[in-house]
């Protein structure tokens, strides 16, 4: 379904998604938010990142490590992003500043996660690389309890997604038309 979206569809959905997310109490009260830079037809995050930064929120963005774990760096505006090609697989935008280390995410009040779908239990279907599974396990081991939110299109909130033993549920899904909260 994402492949059928036009650039205009993605832009309009991104503005609506940012509006929904920015109204959430979790984000209005957050001092540090771990997020990501959307690519391609993913639900757009640029407007949301800019608005959070303008509010004075410390925004952490991931940098993919060779073992698929994530390091983190600061987002200080579009100029702080660097395009990175990972082994011919994917072209991402990552923070260009000094790396803060994989543990930096432990200080986040909210973690915004990418995904392909989420089900009514809050189980998120990722892209299969395991990067965010590692982040969620790291948070759990450390006893950190940020709000976990996946950013999706409306059609990607579904009845059921496959689940593996290491999967962890999210607290909410934010879509262009609203917020879905889970158990």
UniProtKB/TrEMBL annotation:
Q: Which cofactor does it need?
A: Mg(2+)
* Reaction catalysed by this enzyme: (6S)-5-formyl-5,6,7,8-tetrahydrofolate + ATP = (6R)-5,10-methenyltetrahydrofolate + ADP + phosphate
Please give the InterPro entries that the UniProt record associates with this protein.
FTHF_cligase (IPR002698), FTHF_cligase-like_sf (IPR024185), NagB/RpiA_transferase-like (IPR037171)
Segments for region (Disordered): 163-183
The alphabetized UniProt keywords are:
ATP-binding, Ligase, Magnesium, Metal-binding, Nucleotide-binding
A Gene Ontology molecular function term for this protein is:
5-formyltetrahydrofolate cyclo-ligase activity
The Enzyme Commission number assigned here is 6.3.3.2
For this chain, the family text in UniProt reads:
Belongs to the 5-formyltetrahydrofolate cyclo-ligase family.
Please identify the protein, giving its name as recorded: 5-formyltetrahydrofolate cyclo-ligase
Q: Which organism is it from?
A: Streptomyces composti
Q: What is the lineage of its organism?
A: Bacteria, Bacillati, Actinomycetota, Actinomycetes, Kitasatosporales
């Amino acid at each position: 379904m994402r492949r059928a979206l036009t650039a205009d569809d993605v832009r309009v959905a991104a503005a609506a998604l940012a509006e929904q997310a920015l109204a959430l109490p979790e984000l209005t009260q957050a001092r540090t938010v771990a997020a990501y830079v959307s690519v391609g037809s993913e639900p757009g995050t640029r407007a949301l990142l800019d608005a959070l930064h303008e509010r004075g929120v410390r925004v952490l963005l991931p940098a993919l490590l060779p073992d698929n774990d994530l390091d983190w760096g600061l987002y200080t505006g579009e100029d702080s992003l660097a395009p990175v090609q990972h082994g011919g697989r994917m072209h991402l935008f990552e923070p260009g500043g000094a790396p803060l280390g994989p543990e930096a995410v432990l200080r986040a009040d909210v973690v915004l996660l990418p995904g392909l779908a989420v089900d009514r239990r809050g189980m998120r279907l990722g892209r299969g690389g395991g990067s965010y599974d590692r982040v969620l396990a790291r948070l759990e081991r450390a006893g950190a309890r940020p709000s976990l939110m996946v950013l999706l299109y409306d059609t990607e909130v579904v009845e059921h997604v496959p689940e593996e033993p290491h999967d962890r549920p999210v607290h909410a899904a934010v879509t262009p038309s609203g917020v879905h909260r889970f158990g």
